[in-house]
Write a structure and sequence with these properties.
Blueprint: H1 2-28, H2 34-39, H3 45-55, H4 61-73, H5 87-122, H6 127-141, H7 144-158, H8 173-207, H9 210-217, H10 222-233, H11 235-251, H12 254-259, H13 265-274, H14 278-306
Amino acid sequence: MRRYVIRRVLSLGLSLAVASILIFLVVELVPGDPASYMLGTGAQPDTIAALREQMGLDLPLPQRYGNWIAGVLSGDFGHSFTYKTPVAGMIAERMQVSLPLTLMALALAVAIALPIGMFAAARRGGAGDTLVMGATQIGISLPNFWFAMLLVLVFAVNLRWLPAGGFAGWDNPLEALKSLILPAIALALPQGAILARVLRSSLVETLGQDYIRTARAKGLSRAQALSRHALRNALIPVLTIIGMQFSFLLAGAIIIENVFYLPGLGRLIFQAINQRDLIVVQGAVLVLVATVILVTFLVDMGYALIDPRLRK
């Protein structure tokens, strides 16, 4: 197990190094000059040159990358020229919204998927299976922004149970959690439907294995064989989907963040791109990529815990 973990840690470090280079190069190759964009079309050439020097854009590309990555390794992501604040602080502030929202949505998706997937697998080919699979197909097909607006109409406008948008801040944890409930539900529905279908398919395949038939022959019911033996072995593809969904929810919730006016990380990246604040884009995207790689590493560790054969 130790050698397995060491190999995965080395792979994680190499992936982060390659990702940082790619992020830097892609952002640098975006057309347009940030200094000219920030100063406007009427700016004088000497003013633009001075701002480029201040931003470090006049340095050679390798030196700029070296300065940036050295700052990142020391916890300094640079300063935003639009907001005049440290990028690290901006990212940390936005992660206080995006990370809890992602975890809440993922927890809801798993809570939806596990009972539904197990129910459908236990009744494979029956009316219950057909009904559940049809419902999950509808859940996948529904646009989450439309579902979000429907939730606002019902629970915020008509019933007045939850806020329609904005974020109350963690000074009042209860109000902060209430601000995230509707966005989390809007994100969780399609992800839960996808996860339920994957779990059902994996369980159906596992239930056809010889050891399940042996367990049934020893007197276990179909539900007991499913919960005691099949579920654990069916979790590997499910863990893969959960890891992918975490990454998607953390980075791809920008539409929901805009619907509910949440100051999340996805919205920060969108605003920084519009304002050509490249240092913010680089830092925020690097944090997202690092989070995705770390989640992938944790999923790999989950594989090894579930199936000891994978440690070899």
